[in-house]
Amino acid sequence: MNAITESPVAATADARKAGDLLLVATALLLCVWVLLPIYLLIVNALSSPDQVTAFPKRFFPSFDLGSLSFFINFAGVARALWNSVLVATLTMILAIGFGAPAGYALSRFDFPGKGAFRFLVLMTRAFPLPLLALPLAVMFIRTGLDDTAIGLALVHTTLALPFAVLIAFSLFSGIPVELEEAAWTLGCTRWQAFRKVILPLALPGIAASAVFAFTISWNEVFAAAVLTIENRTLTAFLLQSLGESPLYLKFAGGAALVVPALIFIFAVRKYLFAMWGIANR
Amino acid sequence: MAEIAIKGVAKRFGGFTALHQVDLTISDQEFVVLLGASGCGKTTLLRIVAGLERSSQGEVWIGGRRVDHLPPRERGIAMVFQNYAVFPHLTVFENIAFGLRMKKLPQQEVERRVNRTAELMHIEQLLKRYSGQLSGGQRQRVAVARALAMEPDVILMDEPLSNLDALLRLEMRAELKGVLAASKTTTIYVTHDQVEAMSLADRIAVMHQGRIVQAASPVEVYRNPAARFVGSFIGNPPMNFIPAAKAANGSWTVAGLTLSGPKSDKPRIEFAIRPEDVDAGGEGLRATVHVIEPLGPHTLVTCDVEGGLFRAILDSNASVQVGDDLRLAPKPDRIRWFDPETTNAL
To answer: How does it sit in the membrane (chain B) (predicted)?
Structure first.
């Protein structure tokens, strides 16, 4: 009797245990997927050149800052780093500056061609950058925008803008229009209502799309390599100068690329999660 | 001091006409309820008065000032929304203070008004909370307090109680009536709930298909409906209607009964009576009983009169059986007559 009554219970317990195991295993796998490359990158960047090529690997890095300091002092790195930050920041400002109002207009107003506009915003991503890069380079040289941070930021903005517009659109659509109307009846102009009510509620989402724009620009290499010569961004600079460099310098360069992006995301992370007890829509 | 005058206001959405040339004058401190089924244009009319919607034509005057070209903030109004619209990123205190800060009132005055209205709405202990930590009823109180703190000339309410559960609605209804009467504001209140309308209003404006069918005191609207729609919409159960044929000039035959009525050239008009305005026995309308529902204070009897449905409210002591043939005598002073073509009262 006991065996009969117990077995289904045992079976469900087994199934639950297997389910838990699967969950933990999947989570672990995903963590490893994301963290292992970063780990290897950091370890190798913080090791001396001999240790980078040695086998087996040490689990903890030796905190030899030789390759990093060599890399930092490598001619042009500091400037490329500064260019990258500048271009990414400009891209972020432009993408949000244009994207947020466009998203607001899409969610709050009805205008002719609204559907077509939404479609076209997305369509801009259909043109491969290599196809556009050469004509762009010619145009930039003619207008004097070539080899400038603002010129490259404009190109990166076109890459980031569709996402900024669509994220802002869904963000503003998720905020009840009555909140805005209530603000108007309480003495606000449209702009004041936006600033005092809608913007604080949309801030987490706007921060998310800002981070997105920043990372798109930070990681972009093709346009950067084609459109800049003197004022290279870090990615373009690394592509150009590290191709032939020794392995340990490549790791140092990789770390220099990854770490600022990580720091930036870490800095705005609180806006990415729920605020004021309401979930980030 | 704010009288509201709505003059020939119409609203068209593309080919659809939501409001046809509506006229309504609301005197200072009056409580007017716009009552109607959903889609009758009552919320559109309220939003036009608030300035959240532009009218296609017509004028809106508040306190002797034409306001239909002004934005909501310059109209001297405050509004309570159906879904409360309490700002989720501000505390209850800052929600109530929001409009006062926009007016740039000194901090001392802001605090005084917030505390006074919070006390009035019994939410003093919630001032530090956020909207996410409040129940529906509490949010409703915050929304009303926020409107009252503005000390507006006019308060506009768009179905403020419809998201509350029945018991809470009853409680808030009585409270709102007291608070609004004390605040001496002019109020326009939109609802589809006739009991709410009857209990709150000084005057009910019954709306149907984009028109105000009747605007009168609750008792007047109930007793003397200006149109067939009003009689059939207000009252639960609603008014009974029976076709009447002309017998002689000024006398009409209704279900075998000859009654004196209005003088009219028409061969047929409609007789109408409220369910509670008939007495069983004596000389009356011939009725066959279908359903009997004893409700305690009285008994609801559904019968068949001349092939049509007829509801009567009788004394609970009346001994009625299903299948009985009853004689229901209408109280002569409560009989109403309607023109079947225009549906207006005769």
So the answer is: Peripheral membrane protein
For chain B, domains (ranges, CATH) are 4-233 (3.40.50.300), 240-338 (2.40.50.140)
Spatial contact of B86 and B147, defined as CB atoms under 8 Å apart = no
pLDDT tens digits for range B26-60: 999 999 999 998 889 899 999 999 999 999 999 99
Q: Which residues of A touch B72 (CB under 8 A)?
A: 181, 184-185
Q: Residue A278: what pLDDT?
A: 42
Cα A76 from Cα A82, distance rounded (Å)? 10
Rounded-to-integer distance, Cα A269 and Cα B21, Å: 55
Identity of the residue in A187, A197, A276 whose CB atom sits nearest the CB atom of B99: A187
Beta carbons of A276 and B102 less than 8 Å apart: no
Residues B168 and B177: their CA atoms lie apart, in Å, by: 14
> Does the pLDDT of residue B111 top 90, yes or no?
yes
Q: Is the pLDDT score of B140 beyond 70?
A: yes
Contact of A193 with chain B, judged by CB distance below 8 Å, is answered with: no
Confirm or reject contact between A177 and chain B (CB < 8 A). Answer: no
Predicted TM-score (pTM) of this structure: 0.79
Residue-wise burial string across A226-263, b where 16 or more C-beta atoms lie within 10 A, e elsewhere: bbbeebbbbbbbbbebbeeeeebbbbbbbbbbbebbee
Assess B61–A contact: CB distance below 8 Å, yes or no: no
For residues B164 and A253, give the distance between their C-alpha atoms in angstroms, rounded to a whole number: 61
Which residues from B are below 8 Å from A196, CB to CB?
98
For testing contact with chain A, the best of B49, B75, B87, B140 (most A CBs within 10 A): B87
Hey, are the CB atoms on B78 and A185 less than 8 Å from each other?
Answer: yes
CA separation for the pair B201, A221 (Å, rounded): 69
